[in-house]
């Protein structure tokens, strides 16, 4: 079964689900990313009670996400794949509004962002992996469910985001740790170190 056939199967299934499922999936495609962002912020806040390396890893979560997103946009502009909600014949109408022409499909930016956030969170705060990874996968699936991406867009986006986030953290963790150490002796110290006796840990 190719990606187009799988897209038709998923969107046909989606149209057989109740209306509240459509609304949940449409909102969840953005909500999943917002939830992951909130977890990343919480991870940074709690890291301030730990050593500089922990703070550096938490700060690198959004850094890796930005790197992955920018490179994803470059790939989109190179590939220029039309959205399936416009290109696939005899497919069910998309639940979400089909993006305008020129808003290319490959890879799925939502999947890139979700995967990069999830991998960053998993590295910086391992206890949160049980939440971050499932949310990222569901966010990616929702893009096919609501009809705006092929399955291969999502698979590529998840892989792309995960790999780039891991590489960014691997390459920058030492210089970021050194930067955190310097910041802890300057006016920005509250951003990288909690005050003694505070209850910032989670």
In short:
The protein has 202 residues and is mostly helical. It is 71% helix and 0% strand.
Summed up, the helix count is 8
Low-confidence stretches: 198-202
State the helical fraction.
over 70%
Form type? elongated
Please report the total strand number as a whole number: 0
Radius of gyration: 19 Å
Largest sheet: none
Q: Please state the structural category.
A: mainly alpha
Order of helices and strands: HHHHHHHH
Mean pLDDT, nearest integer? Answer: 91
First-residue to last-residue Cα separation: 45 Å
Strand-residue proportion: under 5%
Can you offer a commentary on this structure?
It is a single chain. By secondary structure, the protein is mainly alpha-helical. Helices cover 71% and strands 0% of the residues. It has 8 helices and no strands. The chain has helices at residues 3-15, 19-47, 52-79, 84-87, 109-124, 129-145, 151-183, 189-192. It is elongated and about 65 Å long. The N and C termini lie far apart (45 Å).
């Amino acid at each position: 079964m190719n990606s187009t056939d799988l897209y038709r199967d998923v969107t046909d299934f989606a149209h057989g689900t109740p209306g509240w499922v459509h609304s949940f999936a449409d909102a969840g495609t953005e909500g999943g990313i917002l939830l992951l962002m909130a977890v990343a912020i919480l991870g940074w806040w709690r890291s301030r009670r730990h050593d500089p390396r922990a703070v550096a890893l938490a700060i690198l979560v959004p850094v890796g996400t930005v790197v992955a997103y920018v490179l994803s946009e470059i790939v989109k502009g190179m590939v220029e794949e039309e959205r399936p909600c416009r290109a696939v014949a005899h497919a069910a109408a998309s639940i979400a509004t089909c993006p305008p022409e020129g808003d290319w499909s490959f890879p799925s930016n939502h999947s890139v962002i979700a995967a990069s956030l999830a991998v960053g969170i998993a590295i910086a705060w391992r206890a949160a992996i049980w939440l971050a990874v499932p949310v990222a996968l569901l966010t990616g699936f929702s893009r096919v469910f609501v009809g705006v991406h092929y399955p291969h867009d999502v698979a590529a986006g998840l892989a792309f985001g995960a790999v780039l986030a891991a590489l960014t953290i691997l390459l920058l963790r030492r210089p970021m740790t050194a930067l955190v150490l310097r910041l802890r002796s300057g006016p920005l110290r509250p951003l990288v170190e909690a005050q003694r006796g505070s209850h910032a840990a989670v």
